[in-house]
């Protein structure tokens, strides 16, 4: 698996490296997260109870409302944020939120990113090229 | 990307650093969505309750507000979504004064930018209805879906920073629902039953929203025999947007870009997925009490804010009755409609019954988790499918039911 390159659409934000937290479920910062404690808090979510802090978060599609656009920046400022967002399909709110926060985000991969990446993998995320490299 | 001369000058910093940075961020989003250029917008609607903004967001706004006036003033009429606190009633619901103070700071900062503090998600009903074909930068999912679908105007979901950028630059990236090709129907649903109340219209919205796989999917609903009214479409759209991240739907024979199925789909019409009574009931059944505890802590009418007609319906249901002493009844509306309700005696009827009518807020963005803890609220009842969807993540146990049943239960103090 090491060295595998996944190609998405050029994204937003800086190049980062980190550990994956992945699930075949969707993402909304307002609906799914306890942003005070840095965990998934919606009981029906596949990552319920997991901490997303400093993780490379890998999920399916963006859901829900507009609050995420402010929230990613607030989460980052408080040091309780994902390091990057990798989605099959982002929506404008995710893109706007990532741009405002300077958070790495890539979507529209050539493959289902929630199947290609598993929790625990280490990856490098490069939004400039839209590439994700699996380190281990 | 093609920029016009005005945009080139702004990007060079000739209109100040604030507008320059705003345009730079808009261009990052533009490039993400392969937009070819920017489009001028007629109004902007900013979602910025401090539960979403946080201290970081408020501090950022205050920095903008402290700049030179010509560098910080919005260029187009700009309005706001509900705030996180009712400045007159926050103590009644035990809201933390620290949160309220954060809201005041945000309010002050926005005013310095020339933003009109409408504090509403029903601006298309009460402030300035969109016009077909006009380009907008709206920042509430319910407002966007209504603007695109019901009015035929054109907006993407514009989150707070993005809507504010549009207000400061007067334009937004031309992608998504600004473009004809993205407004074409993609999936077909057929209503085989008539929703009987707002909760059921919301359920239909939730059913469709859950099926949506992408922001760019546009559901088309046919089988509607008589046109729904503004409040019914409001609940349908708000729920669909919330469950789906959906920005536009067509309703054949009702919404302006769907006179018939062929036009809605611009050609080939797919087979429909049927939404019948059983499906609506299954949806509602998913939001019924899990345990037999029975006690009802709070009934909330919000998400979206209530129109004047909804308030009238509610006041008729509650007139002469009393909310149970151990149950709270909260209702959210806009400042304009609250003033109307005061003037028309609806507020008095609701308050005499023990209800609390809040203005300029919703519910889930009032730091609902902390509100729940401060008041001992866990079991919540509502007729809003959207609220039922969201509020579970805030530690509540939601029950979804029609307005009349919610009022009955508020008076009984228990879920029947």
Structure overview:
The complex is a heterodimer of chains A (136) and B (416). Chain A has 136 residues and is of the alpha/beta class. Chain A contains four helices and nine strands. In chain A, strand 6 (84-89), helix 3 and strand 7 (104-106) form a beta-alpha-beta unit. In chain A, helix 2 (68-77) packs parallel to helix 3. Chain A is globular and about 35 Å long. In chain B, strands 11-10-9-12-13 form a five-stranded parallel beta sheet, with helices on both faces. Chain B has a four-stranded parallel beta sheet with strand order 7-6-5-8. Chain B is 43% helix and 13% strand. Chain B is globular. The N and C termini of chain B lie far apart (59 Å). At the A-B interface, helix 1, strand 3, helix 2 and helix 3 of A face helix 2, helix 3, helix 8 and helix 10 of B.
Q: What share of the residues of chain B lie within helices? A: 40-55%
Structural class of chain A: alpha/beta
| Main structural class of chain B | alpha/beta
What shape does the CA trace of chain B take? globular
Average pLDDT of chain B, rounded to a whole number, is 96
**Sheet bearing the most strands of chain A, described?**
7 strands, mixed
Instruction: Please count the beta strands of chain B (DSSP E, at least 2 residues each).
Output: 13
User: Shape of chain A from CA axes?
Assistant: globular
Contiguous low-pLDDT stretches of chain B (5 residues minimum) are: none
Strands ordered across the widest β-sheet of chain B: 11-10-9-12-13
List the strand order in the largest sheet of chain A. Answer: 1-9-8-2-5-6-7
Relative strand content of chain B:
5-15%
Which pair has the most extensive contact?
A-B, 41 and 47 residues
Count of alpha/pi helices of chain A: 4
Instruction: Give helix % range of chain A.
Output: 10-25%
Give the helix/strand layout.
The complex is a heterodimer of chains A (136) and B (416).
Chain A (H helix, E strand, L loop, with lengths): L4 E3 L8 E7 L6 H4 E2 L4 E2 L14 E7 L6 H10 L6 E6 L2 H10 L2 E3 L6 H4 L5 E5 L4 E4 L2
Parallel strand pairs in A: 2-5, 5-6, 6-7
Antiparallel strand pairs in A: 1-9, 2-8, 3-4, 8-9
Helix pairs in contact in A: 2-3
Chain B lengths: L4 H7 L5 H16 L5 E3 L3 E3 L3 H16 L3 H4 L5 E3 L16 H16 L10 H4 L14 H9 L10 H10 L1 E3 L13 E5 L6 H14 L7 E4 L7 H15 L5 E2 L9 H5 L7 E3 L1 H9 L12 E9 L1 H11 L9 E6 L1 H9 L2 H7 L3 E4 L8 H8 L3 E4 L2 H7 L5 E4 L2 H10 L4
Parallel strand pairs in B: 2-3, 5-6, 5-8, 6-7, 9-10, 9-12, 10-11, 12-13
Antiparallel strand pairs in B: 1-4
Helix pairs in contact in B: 2-8, 3-5, 7-10, 9-10, 9-12, 10-17, 13-15
């Amino acid at each position: 698996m090491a060295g595998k390159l996944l190609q998405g659409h050029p994204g937003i934000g800086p190049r980062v490296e980190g550990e994956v937290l992945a699930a075949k479920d969707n993402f909304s910062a307002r609906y799914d997260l306890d942003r005070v404690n840095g965990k998934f808090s919606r009981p029906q979510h596949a990552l319920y109870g997991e901490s997303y802090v400093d993780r490379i978060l890998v999920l399916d599609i963006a859901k829900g409302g507009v609050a995420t656009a402010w929230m990613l920046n607030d989460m980052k400022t408080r040091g309780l944020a994902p390091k990057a967002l990798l989605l099959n399909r982002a929506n404008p709110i995710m893109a706007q939120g990532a741009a405002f926060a300077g958070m790495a985000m890539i979507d529209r991969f050539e493959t289902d990113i929630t199947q290609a990446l598993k929790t625990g993998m280490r990856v490098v995320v490069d939004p400039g090229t839209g590439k994700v490299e699996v380190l281990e | 990307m093609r920029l016009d001369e005005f945009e080139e000058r702004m990007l060079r910093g000739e209109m100040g650093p604030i507008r320059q940075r705003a345009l730079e961020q808009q261009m990052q989003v533009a490039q993400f969505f392969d937009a070819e250029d920017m489009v001028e917008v007629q109004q902007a609607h900013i979602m910025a309750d401090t539960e979403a903004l946080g201290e970081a967001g408020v501090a950022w706004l205050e920095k903008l507000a402290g700049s030179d006036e010509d560098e910080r003033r919005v260029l187009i009429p700009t309005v706001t979504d509900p705030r996180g606190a009712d400045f007159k009633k926050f103590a009644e619901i035990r809201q933390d004064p620290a949160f309220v103070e954060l809201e005041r700071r945000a309010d002050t900062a926005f005013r310095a930018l020339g933003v009109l503090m409408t504090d509403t998600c029903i601006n298309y009903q009460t402030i300035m209805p969109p016009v077909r074909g006009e380009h907008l930068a709206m920042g509430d999912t319910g407002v966007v879906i209504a603007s695109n679908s019901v009015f035929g105007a054109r907006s993407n979901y514009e989150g707070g920073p993005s809507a504010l950028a549009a207000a400061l630059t007067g334009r937004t990236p031309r992608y998504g629902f600004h473009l004809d090709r993205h407004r074409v129907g993609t999936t077909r649903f057929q209503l085989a039953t008539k929703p009987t109340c707002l909760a059921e219209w919301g359920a239909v919205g939730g059913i469709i929203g859950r099926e949506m796989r992408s922001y760019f999917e546009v559901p088309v609903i046919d089988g509607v025999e008589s046109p729904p009214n503004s409040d019914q479409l409001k609940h349908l759209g708000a729920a669909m947007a919330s469950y789906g991240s959906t920005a536009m739907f067509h309703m054949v024979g009702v919404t302006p870009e769907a006179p018939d199925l062929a036009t809605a789909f611009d050609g080939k019409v797919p087979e429909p997925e049927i939404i019948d009574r059983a499906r609506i009931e299954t949806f509602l059944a998913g939001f019924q009490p899990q345990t037999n505890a029975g006690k009802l802590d709070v009934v909330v009418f919000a998400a979206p804010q209530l129109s004047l007609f909804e308030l009238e319906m509610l006041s008729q249901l509650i007139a002469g009755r009393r909310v149970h002493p151990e149950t709270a009844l909260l209702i959210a509306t806009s400042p304009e409609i609250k003033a109307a309700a005061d003037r028309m005696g609806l507020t008095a009827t609701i308050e005499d019954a023990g209800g609390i009518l809040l203005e300029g807020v919703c519910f889930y963005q009032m730091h609902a988790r902390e509100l729940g803890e401060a008041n001992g609220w866990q079991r919540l009842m509502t007729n809003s499918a959207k609220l039922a969807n969201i509020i579970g993540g805030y530690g509540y146990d939601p029950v979804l039911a029609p307005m009349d049943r919610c009022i009955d239960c508020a008076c009984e103090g228990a879920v029947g």
